[in-house]
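Here's what a typical entry looks like (N-acetyltransferase domain-containing protein):
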Amino acid sequence: MAAPSPAVRPAYTIQVADSQELVQACYDVRIEVFVVEQGFSHDDEIDEYDPQSIHFLLTTPLPSPPPVATSSLTPNPATAGGTTEYPIGTIRFVPGKNKLTRLAVQKEYRQYGFGKVLVEALETFVKENAVKQNLGAVYEEGGKKWIDINCHSQLYVIPFYTKFGYVAEGPQFDEDGAPHQLLIHKLQVD
């Protein structure tokens, strides 16, 4: 019997959420994943770190609904065959705390490796901007500049983060009613 073919990843875009509308789309994904799906408290999901955080939004294009029928026999070219960007994932970085947090991908899109894509996008951004935007504590070691990114990981996700070089540090702890582990990744920056 042949192995099933891997899922073909849909087209996607990742962008820094630089408007309230895009940040709200990040919140909507997080609420769907953490509150609705995983049962965490809505009161804890949007927190004091959100206003100072750098949010990344992952979207995929979906066909726009057809235009509403009108008396015209000719479709409006602005709406015919268009697409809408549908939010499917998010991650945030908290400058000053050097913290990767709130990685969330809509359940039906997890099979495509979008969690990996989001972590890579965040780390690339931090690598390129840590020094010039003063994102966090950068230090020199061996003639190179580094930043330690930390993450409070749910236990079942630890193997995912270790693939990026994150290492467990200290004891497990409770965060919002679920066991977590502090993970640290030493990232070389430009």
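The domain at 13-66+78-189 is CATH 3.40.630.30 (Aminopeptidase).

More examples are in the samples folder.
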